[in-house]
Amino acid sequence: MELTLSLGIGLLVGSGVWLIQRPRTYQVVIGLALLSYAVNLFIFSMGRLTNRLAPVIDTSVEVDPSAFVDPVPQALVLTAIVIGFATTALFLVVLLAARGLTGTDHVDGREPER
Amino acid sequence: MTEANLLLLLILLPFMGSALAAMLPGNARNAEAWLSGGLTIVAFAVTASLFPSIADGGVVRRQVEWLPEFGLNFTLRMDGFAWMFSMLITGIGFLVVLYARYYMSPKDPVPRFFSFFLAFMGAMQGMVISGNLIVMAIFWELTSIFSFLLIGYWHHNAAARDGARMALTITGVGGLCLLVGIIIIGHIVGSYELDDVLASGNLIRDHDLYTPALLLILMGALTKSAQFPFHFWLPNAMAAPTPVSAYLHSATMVKAGVFLLARLWPVLSGTDEWFFLVGLAGMSTLLIGAFFAIFQQDLKGLLAYSTISHLGLITTLLSLGSPLAAVAAIFHMMNHATFKASLFMAAGIIDHEAGTRDMRKLSGLITFMPITATLAMVASAAMAGVPLLNGFLSKEMFFAETLEQHHGSMLDGLTPYAATIAGAFAVTYSVRFIHTVFFGPKPVDLPREPHEPPHWMRVPIEVLVLVCLIVGIVPGITVGPYLHAAVVAVLGDRTPTYSLSVWHGFNMPLVMSLLAFVGGIFLYLALRRYLATCEDGTPFLRNLKGQRIFERILVTISWRWARWMESAFGTRRLQPQLRLVVFLALVAGAWPVVRAGYVPETPSLAGIDPVFAAIWVVGGICALGAAYKAKYHRLAALVLMGGAGIVTCITFVWFSAPDLALTQLLVEIVTTVLILLGLRWLPKRIEQVDNATTSIGRMRRHRDFGLAVACGAGMAFVSYVMMTTPWPESISEYFLLNAYPEGGGTNVVNVILVDFRGFDTFGEIVVLGIVALTVFALLRRFRPAAESIGVPEQQRIQDAYDDDRSDREVGETVRDYLTIPSVIMQWMFPVTILLAAYLFLRGHDLPGGGFAAGIAMAIGFLLQYLAGGTRWVEDRLRILPVRWIGFGLLMAAFTGIGSWLFGFPFLTSYFQYTEIPFIGKVPTATALLFDLGVFSLVVGATVLILIAIAHQSIRSHRARAIEATKAEEPEEEFV
Predict the structure, then answer these.
(1) Which chain B residues contact residue A99 at CB under 8 A?
(2) Looking at the complex, does the CB of residue A103 fall below 8 Å from at least one CB of chain B?
(3) Distance CA B108, CA B559 (A)
(4) What is the pLDDT of residue B911?
(5) How many of the other CB atoms lie within 10 Å of CB of B639?
(6) What are phi and psi of B65, to 5 degrees?
(7) What is the DSSP secondary-structure string of B388-412?
(8) How many CB atoms lie within 10 A of CB B183?
(9) Where are the transmembrane segments (chain A) (predicted)?
(10) Count of domains observed in chain A
């Protein structure tokens, strides 16, 4: 399972890194979104992978910390997901505005000379 | 203890006054003056009342813990020396307020003036009574900042801006040096407390770091006190309003430097380094300042250079290292403050009533303003050092001290001559000031008809001149005890016996004084004709200006070098920058692994769950596909990206993170809708046209591909290694154990977010709110590109279909588009709200919470937009997302602040379970209120972003309408 997920993270990072080096703004937006998936998964996996141990405690029995997955990375990632949405939105709007102002969707705001 | 608290009051009063003054209306000149004057006189009275406690070497202290873990305390400490300065700051401060009331024009923005003025006073006050060197450095920098604001008060004037900037640059750099010097001292002594530092003189002087510390501290003190070679900022600061000059350059700002030198005198002085550095700076300043002052044509310029020279005198005295010289220095600080403040005010009156400060134009004013003239004459006599005035006393002491042999070096031998020459120059410029301005023929073509100023504008000068006289005639019984308190505070056991009497017999200092008088008057007579007409500035040296050198340096550093660096290393293109960032990150990540020679175990294929692996095969294909398709097939790329998102979401479910899965799923929906809305405005890209197939292009792609593969492989490696390493001890156990007993919730992730780490969450929602507002602001000015304005292809096809059929009207198909889903979406609205409420309420105990509920609610609104269109929704529903954002932030903040009322730190939560009819037991923690804030903000931010983009379609309708009318107009002409 660890191998599967780490390969998955690797693929997401590879695709993301490829995309953010592309010249078109839309590619960069998609690239950043893929990178944010990868980073969220990476941080999340710091708590190690376990099934069916969600950090929701049962009040009727005494809490045994080893019976739950680490909640801290989850708390970190939860806000990161929402912030990730916000930055994607911001970047999308910046690219729309740049497109409106410069007339091109090249990341530098002008088409390269050939 | 009351006395100690009075010290706090001394600092708080001016700062509070500053805040109040800033809020008064712009034309409230009288209210401002009453407020400032009242506060200042109270501060003066408070200071005066402290005298008995400090009279005989006593010290009043007030300590507030600041950063106790670093041994830093906010210590206030008043001894005789600080008291003397406090008296000057508040006393002269009050007189300046009174003067400024009449000086400032009703057209000037007075609230700003008094606000800055009081803040400056507070900073200065804090500087002199701080008992901790770090605190002192902070107040020191505050004085630099507020003096910048005061000097640049008339910011429409280029000279004021330049002068202010120069003063700030020089004193600010000095302040930073001072801070470093203080840190070294703290390192040597082991404490920043002034008491400890003053007690460790020998330790500091014998330490290896003494010289660097001394150099750095001198940088601070000499820049502040405008000592050569840093003197040139002071004349440029004369662009300030005259009350500011009178205050900053007599009693406060520039005195801070010599104050510091005197304060640390017992610790730092007495070494050869001290004598040469301080002595050389002081003596050259003394001479240069006095010489330059003679040749100024601007009244304030003359006074500025004379101030520089007098500060040089004080510095020279402090350099000598003998206790008697220190007494003279302290005495002269006091005397200079009184006569220079009054002279600046007199110059301001002349400027105010005659309309110019140019000495070539001014003449014979004594007939127009006899009282002011008399006062100015007495004050400049004090400046020249005429007997029976206070300036004479300290100048005699100075002459006497220069005659003493302290070190037996060349510099020492020259001192008496330098002192006499500087004394002669002082006489020359003082005589020139009086003779040119007040005597001679009546002035011609002055901008205004000169006359006496309003009575109360003159009162401050009268008071100061009276002080000069009284101190000059009967020093022993007037100023004696106060000076003694200051001297004892600085010198302690080394306090010498000194005499303040006016007549010391016919001795060498008196001869030097006489020589200076005669020489000075002769020099004036010799130069008189030349001065009456000459250009402003010193002969031969006019072009050698410190100011110009300073500007050259600034231009070189901040423009030439910066340009060179930019052209050598910079690029405005994004791709190389990103490539570099990614590459450096890769190297930084790989470096430790390679260096440590880490060899991982061979991963085993055992234990791979086939279902999970299959899911990730899909995920991987989605990621690669999105990367492949993003250029030409945007929609496909978006769908594939969503696929990768869903796989991420499933992964969260798989590995026990229901909260994350829920949030990810909801965010996935809004992200997709968001990008879908944006797609409309991007230019078309046709595959055949711009496929770069040049060899350079191909090479670039290979390089990027290599980088991407390396990064991907590296991240996969790091993740694998990390996931297979055993779980170390972490803080998680604490959260798991205490979530219920302390946070009152069973969903630990949510408890962490809204309770344990509530402050982080607060920061995050603030970021979210800011992003949403930024999006809104950016799109407000957005104009779609011309080629995107047209009706989308799909709608054109549908309209064409209507056109062909005789039974259909054009637009009918577009209107009926997705009718059934629309109805369902509209019906879903209440259900979505209910779902959001459900997610919100269960959040503390089960997966859900403010973030998830907020996005769910936002999706509810979003569906209405999708179903009915922007106009339809906005005719029926006013959403006001900005209010939601504001409410959310305030809710979260007030919940946090609420805990203060009960004496707990920010965001401490309280909880209990309450029974609500029909719903059951609901946890009502204050954390729930905080979560409500999160919820409201997330709704507002998400909806605001999406609506802002959706509104662009309405814009394009409008744009089309405008295009259409433009196209029609020429036709109308034909009709």
Answers:
(1) 681-683, 785
(2) yes
(3) 34
(4) 64
(5) 15
(6) -70, 135
(7) TSHHHHHHHHHHHHHHS-SS-SHHH
(8) 16
(9) 29-47, 75-98
(10) 1
DSSP H or E segment with residue B915: strand B913-916
User: Are the CB atoms for B658 and A47 separated by under 8 Å?
Assistant: no
Q: How far is CA A84 from the centre of its chain?
A: 7
Distance CA B357, CA B742 (A): 72
Tens digits of residue pLDDT in B208-230: 899 999 999 999 999 999 998 88
The pLDDT value recorded for residue B967 is 63
pLDDT digits (tens, 9 = 90+) for B73-114: 888 999 999 999 999 999 999 999 999 998 888 888 888 899
Helix, strand, coil percentages in chain A from 3-state DSSP, rounded to 5: 65, 5, 30
Which positions in chain A touch B639 (Cβ < 8 Å)?
Answer: none
CA dist., res. B279 & res. B317, Å (int): 8
Which residues numbered 635-664 in B keep a CB inside 8 Å of some CB on A? 637-638, 641, 644-645, 647-648, 651-652, 654-660, 663-664
H or E element that contains B75: strand B72-78
Q: For B734, which residue in chain A has the nearest alpha carbon?
A: A65
pLDDT number for residue B972: 41
How many Cβ atoms sit within 10 Å of the Cβ of residue B933?
24
CA trace torsion B486, B491, B496, B500 (10° rounding): -20
Residue B942 has pLDDT above 80, yes or no: yes
Flag if B671 and A49 touch (Cβ within 8 Å).
no
Estimate the crossing angle of helix B370-384 against helix B323-354, to 10 degrees. Answer: 160
Written as one string, the DSSP assignment of B608-670 is --HHHHHHHHHHHHHHHHHHHHTTT-HHHHHHHHHHHHHHHHHHHHHTT-HHHHHHHHHHHHH
**What is the interface size between A and B, counted as CB pairs within 8 Å?**
318
The CA distance from B741 to the nearest CA of chain A, in Å, is 9
Residue A63 lies in a domain: no
Please give the ipTM for the structure prediction. Answer: 0.95
Task: Tell if the CB–CB gap between A93 and B671 is shorter than 8 Å.
Answer: no
Average pLDDT, integer, range B515-526: 90
Nearest chain B Cα distance for residue A68, angstroms? 8
Q: Quick check: B124 and B171 in contact, CB under 8 A?
A: no
Residue B544 has which token pair?
A: 């050698």
pLDDT higher than threshold 50 for residue B799: yes
User: Which of B611, B659, B857 to mutate: most A Cβ within 10 Å?
Assistant: B659
The pLDDT value recorded for residue B540 is 65
How does pLDDT run across B14-70, given as a tens digit for each residue? 999 999 988 888 777 788 889 899 999 999 999 999 898 888 888 888 888 888 777
Q: What are B301-330's pLDDT values in tens digits? A: 899 999 999 999 999 999 888 888 899 999
Residues shown for chain A: 114
Among A55, A99, A108, the residue with its CB nearest the CB of B681 is A99
Instruction: Tell me the one-letter amino acid at B479.
Output: V
Residue A14 lies in a domain: yes
Predicted pLDDT at B463: 93
| pLDDT given at position B971 | 42
Q: Which residues are CB-neighbours of B758 under 8 A, at least 6 positions away?
A: B896, B907, B909, B927, B930
Using a CB-CB distance cutoff of 8 angstroms, which residues of chain B are in contact with residue A84? 667
**Which secondary-structure segment (H or E) carries B67?**
strand B60-67
What's A17's domain CATH number?
A: 1.10.287
Read off the amino acid at residue B177: C
Residue A59 domain-assigned (yes or no)? no
Owning domain of residue A34: 2-49+68-102
With respect to residue A88, please indicate whether it lies within any of the assigned structural domains. yes
Dmax of chain B from CA atoms?
125
CA of B623, closest CA in chain A: separation in Å?
Answer: 6
A68 touches chain B (CB under 8 A): yes
CA distances from B396 to B223, B380, B795, B927 (A): 27, 17, 97, 73
- The pTM for the full model equals 0.68
